[in-house]
Amino acid sequence: MFLGESGSGHSVVMDGAESQGGRNMGVRPMEMLLLGLGGCASFDVMSMLTKSRQQVTDCRTEIEAERVDAVPAVFSKIHLRFVVSGRKLKETQVKRAVELSAEKYCSASIMLNAAGVEMSHSYEVIDA
């Protein structure tokens, strides 16, 4: 089990499965990578929607990932699905925010794509 501390002073517990010598007391490091990706992309999407005066009440990012069956077991495919809820949301604004995050702003997504990970994105707009 490891305690990671960020430069901003926040901590997170990471651990492995018992079958790999861990105690299952925290997030797996590769899960942490996906959580960081989801957070990075979500911040981008929410920032752009807020700036375009969209009335967002919730934004959830669901991530599906595949890893290669070899060592190292790197990610080969990652799909981010944004579920954005709000009042009178413009689908064109949500679509554009997701595209800009993927293509221009999300450092994590762009870095993974440059490393050869097949990245894909989709979205759903829910009128709340």
Task: Describe this structure as you would to a colleague.
By secondary structure, the protein is of the alpha+beta class. The chain has a single domain (28-127), classed as GMP Synthetase, Chain A, domain 3 (2-Layer Sandwich), CATH 3.30.300.20. Helices cover 36% and strands 34% of the residues. The protein is built from 3 helices and 5 strands; from the N terminus they run ββαββααβ. It has helices spanning 29-51, 91-105, 107-114, and strands at 2-5, 11-14, 55-67, 75-87, 118-127. The longest helix is centred in the first third of the chain and has 23 residues, at 29-51.
What is the number of domains? 1
**CATH fold group:** GMP Synthetase, Chain A, domain 3
Q: How big is the Rg? A: 17 Å
Alpha plus pi helix count: 3
Question: Averaged pLDDT, please?
Answer: 97
Shape: globular
Distance between the termini: 41 Å
CATH architecture verdict: 2-Layer Sandwich
- Largest beta-sheet characterization: 3 strands, mixed
What is the CATH C-level name?
Alpha Beta
Strand order of the largest sheet: 3-4-5
Name a few traits of the molecule.
128 residues, 5 strands, 3-stranded mixed sheet, alpha+beta, GMP Synthetase, Chain A, domain 3, single chain, globular, two-stranded antiparallel ribbon, 36% helix, 3 helices
Write a brief caption for the model.
With 128 residues, this protein is of the alpha+beta class.
Secondary structure: elements and pairs:
Elements: E1 2-5, E2 11-14, H1 29-51, E3 55-67, E4 75-87, H2 91-105, H3 107-114, E5 118-127
Parallel strand pairs: 4-5
Antiparallel strand pairs: 1-2, 3-4
Protein name: OsmC/Ohr family protein
Region (Disordered): 1-23
